[in-house]
Write a structure and sequence with these properties.
The chain contains four helices and eight strands; from the N terminus they run αβαββββαβββα. With 190 residues, it is an alpha/beta fold. The strands form two sheets. The chain has a four-stranded mixed β-sheet with strand order 1-4-3-2, covered by helices on one side. A four-stranded mixed β-sheet has the order 5-8-7-6. It has two domains: 22-86, 2,3-Dihydroxybiphenyl 1,2-Dioxygenase, domain 1; 88-190, Roll (2,3-Dihydroxybiphenyl 1,2-Dioxygenase, domain 1). The longest helix is centred in the middle third of the chain and has 13 residues, at 97-109. β7 (126-131) and β8 form a beta hairpin.
């Protein structure tokens, strides 16, 4: 792999459309009820629709977190499509830094193991990463870098990877306001 060649790739000029954000993600799961309970009770999604296994191989549940009909579609695993295969991670954005701190505490309260809280690097976003019951890696993030029309990205030497929210908040990337408001008291909990 030639990293420089890959970094030089980009959106062709003149395309008649522009993808804005990820619309939804579909995942195969072992147990639709268990996974639906995780996404509703732990992450606060709302069920929009469900399809019984007799109507669709394995069945399906459609979950929303906003006004779109669904952000996540759970499909019952089948022999042809086993649970947890072919997906790296699903990332979901929250609007405030306080919410990142609160989601970490919420996961801890529900004894959900956290793989990472902090900042990885590329993109500059603060994250909390964990797995759902089928082992899908989930990332909830805030503060991802925005790329303007000039196409300039943050240079690698400014990435500041850290493995805790406290370190990410205490040492923000250039231009990122990591002022925590309502969640200040939660930052002392680790």
């Amino acid at each position: 792999m030639n990293v420089d060649t890959i970094k030089a790739m980009g959106r062709p000029k003149g395309l008649p459309f522009r993808i804005g954000k990820i619309g939804h993600v579909g995942m195969y799961v072992k147990d639709l009820e268990r996974s639906t309970r995780f996404y509703t009770d732990i992450l606060g999604f709302q069920v929009s629709d469900a399809i019984a296994p007799g109507e669709l191989a394995g069945g399906a549940v459609f979950l929303r977190c906003g006004t779109d009909h669904h952000a996540i579609a759970l499909f019952g695993a089948t022999e042809d499509h086993p649970a947890g295969t072919g997906l790296h991670h699903v990332a979901m954005e929250v609007p405030t830094l306080d919410e990142i701190v609160r989601i970490r505490e919420h996961l801890r309260e529900h004894q959900i193991p956290i793989n990472l809280d902090g900042r990885r690097g590329a993109g500059g976003q603060l994250v909390v990463e964990f797995r759902d019951p089928d082992g899908h890696l989930l990332e909830i993030y805030w503060g991802i870098d925005q790329i303007g029309s000039e196409g300039i990205v943050r240079p690698e030497e400014q990435w500041k990877s850290v493995r805790s929210l406290e370190a990410a908040i205490g040492n923000p990337v250039e231009g990122q306001d990591t002022t925590v408001h309502a969640a200040k008291s939660l930052l002392s909990v680790s």
